[in-house]
Every structure is written in C-alpha cells, then in structure tokens.
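During the reporting period the student researcher (J.K.) took over the structure-prediction task from the postdoctoral fellow and processed the backlog of single-chain submissions. One of the processed entries is reproduced below for the supervisory committee.
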Amino acid sequence: MTQTNNKKTLRVGIAGLGAVGLDVAKRLIAGVPGLTLAAVAVRDAEKAQRALPQVGSDILVRKPTELAKDCDIVVECLPPALFRDIAISAIDKGRIFMPLSVAQLLENGDLVERARRKGARILVPTGALIGLDAVRAAAEGTIHSVKMVTRKPPAGLDGAPYLSERGISVTGLKEPLKVFDGSAREGARGFPTNVNVAAALSLAGIGPDRTQLEIWADPGVTRNTHTITVDADTARFTMTIENIPSENPRTGKSVAPSTVAALRALVSELKVGT
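J.K. obtained the following structure tokens:
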C-alpha cells in the first residue's frame, strides 16, 4: 500500500479482462482518486496490451494466484472453475477480495471463516441488483420471504449446466419458457454464470436455501430483467431492474460501474448507502 499526501492509495489487481474486467480496468486507468490499477492476470498478454497499452509496463502481469503479492484488493472476473484458488490466495494474504462470480461463494462458504482467521475481507459489489441496501436493512430485523424472478434473452442462458443436464433447449423460442424454479443455492449450481445477482440477494437477506428463484428464457426481452419481492417485519417492497447486457450476454453493463463504485467507497471521504 503506497501513501501520497497522507492519503493511502490502494493497489488494485484484476483477474480476468473480459467484458467486465476490461471495463473496470479502463475506469481505474482513467482515474479514481485513492486507487491505482497495479496488476492484471490474463491468459493472453498481447491481447491485453492491445486493449490496454499500459499492461506490461505500468501495469504488472501476474498469475491470478499471484495478484495478492502486489495488490491490496483483488477483483475476481474469472470462470467459476478458477474461483477458489484465487480467493484463497487473496484471503491468505489478508487482502480485500472482491468476487464477481458471487454464486461461487455459496459453494465455498468456508472462505468467510477463513477470511476471519486471516484478517481478510470479502466484499461483494451490488452488481446488477438494485435495492441491496434495502434488503440488508430488512435483514437487521426479520425477513419472512424473498423471491426473485429473472428473465433473460435465451442467448444469455444457453449452455447453462442445468439446461444441458436436462436436455432443455432455449434455441428458437417463440414464447417465454420457465427453465428453473427453486432455491437460490440450487440456481447458483445450475446457472453458475447467470445468477450472481440471486446469490448476492441471498447473502444480503435470508440465505440461499430460503431465497426463492425463478428463471425464464424470454425471447420477448432484450435486457436481463430481475424482479425482487421482499416481505419483512419493517417493510414490504418489490423492485425491478432491466439491465442492458454487456458484450457477454450473461452479464449486464451495470456490473463494471457497480464494481468501481464499490472500490471507490473504500477510499472516498463520503460514502452514501450502507
């Protein structure tokens, strides 16, 4: 951690420069006071340099599990299969670990206790989910029920393990098809790259086993749409957000700016929201 003019500058490392990681990197390079992009982990360094000329000179290139050596914060933007190794490498060095593959936290719940023992923190950005503050506030009291209904263009769900295992095709749909109805935990297992919002919702509220989830492949929508209904002792509320898909149809464009906002909150003098 460097320090300039008595203000700490946090070094950020990004694992993966796909649609979201590249957007986050560009925003950090453009300038966020108190933060600097120190390192990235990429499969193709030359491709990364074409997108970000600073890679390899001002920005170090590291293996995902080595980012924590140079960085105070490790932002994970990798395929689910690589999640645990990078999480452990950041946590064991006492760093701030910011996962975007939030669904993987449900399968690796031991990481929270590991972070406590190692003095690390796991920070989940709001991502594509509005109203997360309201859910967290409601969780300070008693939440009776939480349900989320997700509608995505079929291309955004194509190839999900749950669909492949059951032989469910979403190609050429003419009308909406409900492809899943169950708990957030079950949904995270079956759609590991599609329902990170449901995982975040469950962690903020009543947990992955009590949070109910419906997933629809809907040829009539062009945006990833999430409707959340919460019934608590302090309030009842329903919220809907329509996220424009990024270059990766499984991920909304709001994920990258949400990640930067979460990073900015770590160093900003003023933080609005819980």
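The committee noted the following: DSSP finds eleven helices and twelve strands in the chain.
J.K. will present the remaining backlog at the next meeting.
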